[in-house]
Amino acid sequence: MTQIIFLPHEEVCPEGKVIDVEPGVTICDAALRHGIEIEHACEKSCACTTCHVIVREGFSSLNEADELEEDMLDKAWGLEPESRLSCQAVVGETDLVVELPKYTLNHASEKH
Ligand code: FES
User: Fold this and answer.
1) Which of 38, 50, 52 gets mutated to test ligand 1 (max ligand atoms within 8 A of its CB)?
2) Among 40, 92, 99, 105, whose Cα sits 20 to 30 Å from the Cα of 50?
3) What is the distance in A from the centroid of ligand 1 to the CA of 69?
4) How far is CA 21 from the centre of its chain?
5) pLDDT-based confidence at 107, cuts 50/70/90?
6) How many Cβ atoms from other residues are within 10 Å of residue 49's Cβ?
7) Distances in Å between the alpha carbon of 75 and those of 58, 94, 100?
8) Average pLDDT of 6-19?
9) Average pLDDT over every residue of 85-112
10) Cα(67)–Cα(32) distance, rounded to whole angstroms?
11) Where are the beta strands (DSSP E) in the chain?
């Protein structure tokens, strides 16, 4: 099992959360299964940026982002070098530390 530590996020998981998942699942599915409601507006088809996460530790253990994901990520709020679309990022054998960005594009356009 691989451990994922989610850092605290005001709305989605105020206390943060530590979960154990089977390698091979996406970060998005892993989170959703454990009650962390990452947004996934396009139903995980790599056509939005609402599932954007930043992988603070273990980034290089993930599958590589493909071109489509990179293109979508360019539009994400708060893009960082360790940003991924969580529905496309497959968990490997290495433990991860994942941060949820403060805003998604949905929020950003509504409130800012
Ligand atoms: S849910 Fe839309 S890209 Fe991940």
Assistant:
1) 50
2) 92
3) 9
4) 14
5) low
6) 24
7) 23, 28, 16
8) 96
9) 84
10) 25
11) 2-6, 17-21, 52-57, 83-85, 96-99
